[in-house]
Design goal:
Rossmann fold, binds 5'-O-monophosphoryladenylyl(2'->5')adenylyl(2'->5')adenosine, binds trans-cyclohexane-1,4-dicarboxylic acid, 334 residues, 2 domains, alpha/beta
Length: 334
Amino acid sequence: MSSKHVAVAGATGVVGQQMLRVLEDRDFPVASLKLLASPRSAGRKLTFRGEEIAVEVLAEDSFKGVDVALFSAGGGTSQTFAPFAAKDGCVVVDNSSAWRMDPEVPLVVPEVNPDAIKTHKGIIANPNCSTIQMVQVLQPLHAAATITRVVVSTYQAVSGAGSEALNELRAQTESVLKGEAPACSIFPTQIAFNCIPQIPHSNAFIDNGYSTEEMKMVNETKKIMGDDSIRVTATTVRVPVHTGHSESVNIETKTKLTAAQVRELLATAQNVVVMDDPSKDIFPTAIDAAGKYDTYVGRIREDISHPSAIDMWIVSDNLLKGAALNAVQIAELL
Ligand code: 25A
Ligand code: L14
């Protein structure tokens, strides 16, 4: 791979900083690196490969001479700036939800649908964090036994909501431990020592009663797996975890799969680790997955209420496989 001129838009955010770490860790061939963020971060310095780089203000002309831009600065920012980057011949890998369901834009998980990237017209979308870790596991089961329906509940970490949300979790936890009333500004109600069935933290719910995060899991799963016939329902919940999304997933298949067959299929799935031994109380948790590149699966068992369904627990780092790592993997495919 020849060296690329790379830009990161939203470089100062929780995902942007992980993007720098992953580019460095995977030895991505970076010829030059441009760090972009909002005016309030301009001039701030971030370190890449031991070198300090000053953050610049994201602008329409930021992408001249840039080959690949990784975006993670929110949906509105991507909507506005990704087209300017594409017009200047730069390929955008966008972590926001802005372009994901656009029929012209590939939505890619490299382990699942790498070939989809070939049709890109300058923008490639990185899927929703909860969806990525789930489809990574669904794909081999679908190939073996045809999935007909998925019922998922998520337990999502606060880091998905950004750095200010993490500050709020920390401040609320300290307040509660000191016996003081916790202050809420980002989340709709207290997140410390609580669970909130609303993601994102504002304007979440639509007319059918689902949240937009839940509908992302429904729609993006079908698009990535290239099969509109898979029925999906989701309940997405914020829990007071720093990093790592967990999911309880029930999967119905046309052909029955035993728990042993599922373990065997997942043992050979790329970047999936089966961590499942009930006799030794072994299963993955968010703390096990945080900081890791793999997606972990445990609690695999046959659903006693259904003739051909499997229950399992899927955990991955929402900032890595859920965001920064998947985006860098897409850039590597390019
Ligand atoms: O809901 P969305 O739109 O899909 O947004 C998804 C994510 O985008 C970020 C935030 O993640 C969120 O989870 N974001 C969106 N709107 C934001 C806003 N109004 C916002 N962040 C701050 N304010 P994040 O906090 O991890 O930030 C992700 C990156 O996006 C950059 N960014 C935001 N708006 C941008 C932009 N870049 C270019 N143009 C824009 N219009 C953002 O850069 C970050 O890199 P930044 O300079 O805005 O934030 C750097 C640091 O500033 C601190 N901070 C946050 N809020 C405040 C603040 N400082 C002072 N006052 C604040 N109100 C944070 O610590 C952050 O690290
Ligand atoms: O669509 O945990 O990628 O707040 C990323 C952040 C979904 C919500 C996305 C969160 C969003 C998620």
